[in-house]
Write a structure and sequence with these properties.
The complex is a heterodimer. By secondary structure, chain A is an alpha/beta fold. Chain A is 42% helix and 17% strand. Chain B has 2 domains: 2-256, TIM Barrel (Alpha-Beta Barrel), CATH 3.20.20; 264-354, no CATH class. The chains are: A alpha/beta, B alpha/beta.
Chain lengths: 395, 355
């Protein structure tokens, strides 16, 4: 029995975009959805109440980091990550495998699991599918990810196929080790690199395992956008209609819009919060490097008409903060980072809410056209034009 | 601007800012670049007063220039405060931000901007402060750079007084010309200012920003002649000393929270001594699994301990928010105690309970 229901409320009449309601143990999630990343049980400088005020229904915690701090024993004692951070909405956790491969030197992968050296004392450690499940069960996340064999996206040759089959075998071990299927949902992760045949096989195998949701992994790792779109398009065509599809590690606005058109429902990325700390604001016209001298004394909000708490005028209950003001603090004071984090997180969440509304009202194509016009003028990227044309949307 | 019944000992008063009334004793929060450190304005109820440092808004005239200009405007403040007044780091130049060649003259003052220390015309500083439309301006005083234990000569004292008087006149004239009605507060060195000097400036100012020259703060607090004018303590003092100072008639003090929040310490004291501890250090491993919430917040102590351990910025946000609430209640309790005549008793209890 899964702790998840997924009801498609509307479908785009042209593309594969769909709007749905995903019911999870800690409430509903309207999809398509962007999930901000709170690596260590905190979205960089925002309180849980502030995150809730932005309309966030689900955000990410990282298993690897929570396994180190506060540690599994603490999580078990305090009753999991929801209780610890006083967050009564949904949490998704990754498996911990990606961080090991990306952050740690000397990570080695064997059939047993991912071997690595402890960042504390350099002693050899091993993350197995069973250990990953155990950690995620302790965290209590509403959606937990299987441990997969992660290879760099641009890897070719037999290692890609090996990783795909190993990911399938590890999924079986994760399913067997998962202690709380009645309250936590395990998602599988489709692997197979950029090879369409491997992706097809992986989809078939994993769909047969009947997990509550399905992620498309192994992307957003430096591949060209055409390849990315081809893989997403191919996978969504093979995946069941009645399950959420999670495109991992996707955060650029144009990638989100195109991926929704290709039939994906869920996304996550550190980009909006990380770039905020570098002094960059996201707007519908592109990114704004607020640190630049040209914004000195600029009385305009980060984005005209933006209803985020930072940009919204004081008369309307917002903070009414200008570009000139944020420029003073950006990258110099934590308050500057917090303001940009609030704005960027709102931007991503609001983008998805707007997309959803357009799908419900069956004007998604019109939305996409306006989106690309606002951001790229008359010259949308060729990859986006092609990917969207493949699902009958002209920009 | 300010009304009080005066009299010896702790006093209550009404400070009128922007047409609204603040009851004193009260506090002001320090800012960095126009914001209370770590807090976005949606994260705390309005503080009574906040101070803004003009130097935080100085920008070099060119990448290679040592000269800078002020570009501060009231609307640049990321603040939730009922009243705002401007200060210059020069107020504390001899104690906290000392730089080499920190030399003033009658017409120029050394400011400590993010581009380093540089000489700035006093008239320009007056214009900068007044043009930012703050609720009142505090005139800097001429201060001497003293090494610890050294004494200052009479001639230097006379020179400091003369120069400070000139600067007060200049600020007063600038205010009267560009922002009539804006109160002007004089900075006074509590130990060195003579009664004659204080009398000479009293008619030009609306209050006093009191700077101690040594640690004998509480003993030197009342050389101010006019007891009905606003007295702001310009020194960073402990909460115990705050009670002493309020007992001697100080109306406004600076809240001391940043250093606690940034160190991972939550203030837990209150004037009525209902808590056992003055503060708790949430870095302590005893809080690893403590799921009781911190004060009136919804943050579990275990969560704050984790955030500190993981070096997450949200720790400072949560602690700053909490500590501000503790200080706000502390001053509210002080006002109530003055009102019902129990201040001296409660202040004494506070010291014996927490010390």
């Amino acid at each position: 029995m899964a702790a998840l229901t997924f009801e498609v409320a509307a479908k785009c009449s042209k593309s594969k975009a769909r709007a749905a309601t995903m019911m999870l143990p800690h409430g509903p999630v309207q999809t398509p959805v962007f999930m901000p990343v709170g690596t260590q049980a905190s979205l960089k400088g925002l309180t849980p109440d502030q995150l809730k005020d932005l309309g966030c229904e689900i955000f990410l915690n990282n298993t690897y980091h929570l396994g180190l701090k506060p540690g599994q024993d603490v999580l078990d004692t305090v009753g999991g990550a929801h209780a610890l951070q006083h967050w009564d909405r949904n949490i998704l956790t990754d498996s911990g495998g990606f961080q090991m491969v990306s952050l740690l030197k000397l990570a080695t992968i064997t059939e047993q699991g991912v071997g690595f050296l402890s960042p504390h004392d350099n002693t050899p450690m091993l993350l197995t599918p069973e250990h990953s499940m155990s950690l995620q069960n302790s965290i209590g996340s509403d959606i937990m990810m299987q441990l997969d064999d992660v290879v760099a996206t641009l890897t070719t040759g037999p290692r890609v196929e090996e990783a795909m089959w190993r990911s399938i075998r590890w999924l079986d071990r994760c399913i067997a080790a998962h202690k709380k299927p009645e309250s936590q949902n395990l998602f599988c992760i489709i692997q197979g690199g950029l090879d369409p045949e491997l992706r097809r096989i992986c989809c078939k195998e994993m769909v047969e395992r009947d997990t509550p949701g399905i992620a498309i992994g192994g992307l957003s790792g430096g591949e060209d956008k055409e390849s990315y779109c081809n893989v997403v398009d191919a996978c969504t065509s093979l995946l069941p209609e009645n399950k959420p599809r999670y495109c991992m590690g996707v955060g650029y606005a144009e990638d989100l819009v195109v991926s929704v058109a290709l039939g994906a429902d869920m996304f996550d990325c550190v980009y909006p919060t990380r770039t905020a700390r570098f002094g960059t604001a996201l707007t519908r016209h592109g990114v704004l490097n607020v640190k630049l001298l040209e914004y000195k004394n600029d009385p305009r909000p980060l984005e005209d008409g933006c209803k985020c708490p930072v940009c919204k005028p004081k008369e309307e209950g917002g903070m009414g903060i200008s570009r000139g003001t944020i420029r003073i603090m950006a990258t110099r004071d934590t308050v500057g980072a917090h303001l940009l984090t609030i704005h960027n997180t709102w931007y991503q969440l609001e983008l998805m809410r707007t997309i959803r509304q357009a799908i419900v009202e069956d004007r998604f194509e019109e939305f996409v056209q306006t989106f690309f016009k606002d951001k790229f003028g008359n010259e949308p990227p060729a990859w986006a034009r092609q990917a969207l044309a493949n699902v009958n949307i002209r920009i | 601007m300010f009304k009080t019944a005066g009299g010896p000992g702790a006093r209550s008063g009404i400070l009128t800012i922007n047409g609204s009334e603040l009851i004193t004793p009260t506090y002001f929060a320090s800012t960095r670049r126009g914001a209370i450190p770590h807090l976005t304005p949606d994260n705390y109820p309005a503080v009574p007063l906040a101070t803004v440092y003009n130097e935080d808004f100085h920008e070099a005239l060119s990448p290679s220039s040592k000269r800078s200009e002020c570009f501060m405007k009231r609307e640049y403040l990321v603040l939730n405060a009922k009243g705002v007044f401007s200060l210059s780091s020069h107020h504390f130049g001899d104690r906290e931000k000392k730089v080499k060649n920190d030399v003033d003259n009658n017409f120029a003052i050394t400011l400590h901007t993010m581009h380093g220390g540089n000489s700035h015309p006093v008239s320009a500083l007056a214009n900068d402060m007044v043009n930012t439309k703050v609720d009142f301006v505090v005139v800097p005083h001429d201060s001497a750079s003293l090494s610890q234990g050294s004494r200052i000569g009479k001639n230097r004292v006379r020179k400091m007084e003369t120069r400070t008087l000139e600067w007060i006149k200049l600020f007063r004239a600038t205010v009267d010309k560009n922002a009539p009605g804006t109160p002007v507060v004089a900075t006074i060195n509590m130990e060195l200012s003579t009664p004659a000097f204080l009398s000479s400036i009293d008619s030009m100012v609306d209050g006093y920003f009191l700077i101690p020259s040594d640690s004998r703060l509480a003993d030197n607090v009342v050389p101010v002649p006019d007891t009905t004018k606003l007295r702001i303590c310009g020194a960073k003092v402990s909460y115990f000393d705050m009670l002493d100072l309020i007992g001697k008639g100080i109306d406004v003090l600076e809240t001391q929270i940043d250093q606690y929040s940034e160190a991972g310490v939550a203030l837990t004291f209150d004037l009525n001594c209902t808590s056992r501890q003055f503060s708790i250090d949430l870095n302590d491993s005893c809080y690893t699994t403590d799921m009781s919430t911190l004060g009136d917040t919804r943050f579990a102590k275990a969560y704050l301990h984790h955030l500190l351990n993981a070096r997450e910025m949200t720790a400072q946000v949560a602690l700053q928010k909490h500590n501000l609430e503790v200080v706000d209640k502390f001053f509210s309790d002080i006002r109530n105690a003055i009102e019902d005549g129990t201040f001296d008793t409660k202040a004494a209890n506070f010291k014996s309970h927490y010390n």
